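Shape matters. Shown next:

___
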Amino acid sequence: MDLKRRILELIERDARLSAKTLATMLEEDEGKIEELLSKMEKDKTILGYGTVINWENIGCDGITAMIDVKVIPEREVGFNNIAERIYRFPEVRCVYLMSGTYDLSVVVEGTNMKDVARFVSHKLSTLEHVQSTVTHFVLKRYKQDHFIFEEPKEDKRLVVSP
């Protein structure tokens, strides 16, 4: 497997891995790893380093919504301009072009349902090329970016056998 791909797979799961640790894990020279990381940062293969946080553990009760958006594509640019207008809103976490019934899938975060509703009614649905939206609220996160939020509880029921 390509060395760049192996590096990316490792840091995708743990962005805190140092070049030295990566070099040891991959049995490569540390300088080579540092050089590849630097190149991938410069060419925008690596866009940033993130942390997956379970905000519920510290009592933060924000809300996440996934909004399906039907839009009218623009001549010669398709969905790009409207997607750019949407992703520039600070509430928007992700925007994806989708196949199927809806064109864009937008992930939005707010402090409560009213924040998200206000975003949809005042900002998103008023954009010129937006035809319709469908909002889905996230009720519970089980897994995100390879991380499981709660380990399964041990089954304490008694085994009954004939």
